[in-house]
Amino acid sequence: MYYVDIPELKAQMARKDYNITTFSQKMGVCRETVSRVLSGENPTYPFMCKSMEVLELSKERAMNIFFASKLT
Predict the structure, then answer these.
(1) How far is it, in rounded angstroms, from Cα 70 to Cα 57?
(2) pTM higher than 0.85 for the full model?
């Protein structure tokens, strides 16, 4: 089973000095969209791609964030 590594996504946002509002503006999405993902809703493929671009994530880093595995 996979999930979004929300703490790591937030850490990547913080490294770029983004809060939810500034990140959503840079992404070109509404604030609620970012808020929902940070609350645990699965992101869309376009959201993941745009996040990679805005946060300057490598493919490997993005995979680790958006497809983290639960070891349960």
Answers:
(1) 21
(2) yes
Tell me which DSSP letter residue 68 carries: E
CA-to-CA separations, 72 to 2, 43, 69, in angstroms, rounded? 11, 22, 9
Query: What's the pLDDT tens digit per position in 4-58?
Result: 999 999 999 999 999 999 999 999 999 999 999 999 999 999 999 999 999 999 9
Residues 64 and 60: their CA atoms lie apart, in Å, by: 6
Q: How far apart are CA 17 and CA 20, in angstroms?
A: 10
Helix (H, G, I), strand (E, B) or coil at 3: strand
